[in-house]
């Protein structure tokens, strides 16, 4: 056991504990909602859930990653992180404001096409995105400073509150999707407030963080992150758009995806420490450490994905009925497709971290663009609604992983020592992109 723990990147256990609680909260959240809501309401909640985490993670996870990367580089050079946090928060606020304007313009369309006429879910969507913006920005600081106990605490409070709030809704017999969606707003905001002390201490001090060092990489990273979330979440939304009258399939697909993506929750605990670890090795020019950490991460997610695939394929149809009261519309074949896609997606996520640590933002974005094109092409193939989105997810994920492997292997960039201050100021200069 001790040898196995030594294989994990630093901080994995601390973050993993909080993430385990947050992951459990997802199952409790959807499970209680699935048992209490009508099929049409659960379908609307499923679409809301998918949009929140597609857009929210797509826009704000890149800010967390870039803040973590630049804070880690400053930490290596003995510089305070406050200016990076300030810049990251300003960018998150600007993105949130822009998306708010989009919601104002498209609110009526979203209400009718995706939320079955329930306009309150559009407001929940806006609130949930605001909560994710605040949470991910602060997590970037905590990760970059290697304050993983604080990071894990924020995740754990978020998850614990979701479980408590949803349990209260269930005991009260609440049957409105609005209240189950509102949990996605309240829980992360409270978790940020409870873990504010190290964030507040980091504010201010140190030389300014150049806007260019954050923005040049961030644009490409947002493209990658948004497309990554599209690949993993668009199936539920597509099922609703392809067949609006089939309220069972969208809800069943979300329940199935949450089940087969258990390994992704585990990877998230690795990701918080993997990127800073790879970036530190790249900054120090330590090729051996970089390759060793990458191999260990790939080995861990492969084992997780393989075990998860077997369990989901054999027990998936039964589990979604028991846990989420999902309609019996998916078979073991459906779960097999989703499980294979999740394993390939895990490979893509790890390889993407390696490319990003080498400042390969352009290469990472290219891989996700190619994979999304493959997903869209398969979605257009005439098949049943469920099979169409499942095969598209799997093919898209495989194409992304294969593209990243080729780009990483063909890269001629070598990891050479870079002074930490230079890393902060100019690591995202145009010549560093591939």
From TrEMBL:
Domain of life: Bacteria
Subcellular location: Cell membrane
Keyword DNA damage attached: no
Membrane topology annotation: Multi-pass membrane protein
Transmembrane segments: 7-30, 42-63, 84-107, 119-138, 150-172, 178-200, 220-242, 297-320, 335-356, 365-385, 391-408
InterPro entries listed in its UniProt record: Poly_Biosynth_Transport
Keyword terms, alphabetized: Cell membrane, Membrane, Transmembrane, Transmembrane helix
Protein name: Polysaccharide biosynthesis protein
Native source species: Micromonospora sonneratiae
Lineage of the organism: Bacteria, Bacillati, Actinomycetota, Actinomycetes, Micromonosporales
